[in-house]
Design goal:
12 strands; alpha/beta; 257 residues; transferase; methyltransferase
């Protein structure tokens, strides 16, 4: 165990489909002595680590935190100093609502080498899996990616600002705040804005609900949608080839009412 060179690689595991892991992520896992992993959509990804690598689950789910963030930071460093190469595996991209930068800063304060392997973020990949292009010429020239729940468990104040824009709005971790989100868009007179909610996107358990700002709460109830899910609000939802038929039918019903 002499000459251990501590190193930490922060790896994005992508949105859930194990095939959407990057080659760089696979290579990093193959060289891991320890893997600290979150509540991944697909734990098959852990098979890319050597059989003798230590695997430690440090995931957080609502109301159930295996470790606090400070404890995770310390675990990463302790394992690197003891065993060498630690891969810190996070869902999606580690720097998009993943607190990856805090983990890097903590490790670097000990002088440990850190490398970041970006992951395919569910912000873009999950809508794409339903044919939703979050930007589209002539329809949407930008998008907001917002966390539904801030560190003090409140809805981000950016949602109210986003509701005023013509941009596509993608909200992660927002299912518990959906009534508030709907309310903010209704205040901007956007009751007819298309909405898609995609649960467990890019995985075999994927579930979809589509509607408008006014109807989406009812859709969620009917389809029994829950977390983890992504909320996409914007005209681009209507543009998806997969969802076009729904909106054409939906609009004709609205007109005949």
């Amino acid at each position: 165990m002499h000459n251990i060179k501590p190193k930490i690689t922060l790896v994005g595991a992508g949105p859930g489909d194990p095939d959407l892991l990057t080659l760089k992520a696979v290579k990093a896992l193959a060289e891991a002595n320890v893997v600290l992993y979150d509540a991944l959509a697909n734990e098959e990804i852990l098979d890319y680590a050597p059989k003798n690598a230590i695997r430690i689950f440090v995931g957080k789910r609502i109301g159930n935190h295996a470790y606090t963030q400070d404890q995770i930071n310390q675990l990463i460093v302790d394992n690197a100093l003891t065993y060498g190469h630690v891969v810190r595996l996070k869902g999606g991209d580690p720097f998009i609502f993943g607190r990856g930068s805090e983990e890097v800063e903590f490790a670097e304060s000990f002088g440990i080498e850190t490398i970041v392997v970006p992951g395919i973020s569910s912000v873009v990949a999950v809508p794409a899996s339903q044919g939703i292009s979050i930007t589209k010429r002539g329809v949407s020239e930008s998008f907001w990616a917002i966390t539904g729940t801030t560190s003090d468990r409140k809805l981000s104040s950016d949602v109210a600002l986003a509701a005023q824009s013509s941009a596509t709005v993608v909200i992660l971790m927002g299912m518990h705040k959906l009534p508030q989100i709907v309310d903010l868009f209704q205040k901007e007179d956007k009751g007819n804005l298309p909405v898609a909610i995609i649960q467990n996107g890019t995985t075999t358990e994927e579930k979809l609900g589509v509607g408008t700002v006014d109807s989406i709460l009812e859709v969620v109830k009917q389809k029994e949608l829950g977390s983890p899910a992504i909320i996409v609000l914007g005209e681009v939802v209507r543009e998806s080839n997969k969802l076009k038929g729904f909106y054409e039918e939906f609009l004709s019903k609205e007109i005949t009412r």
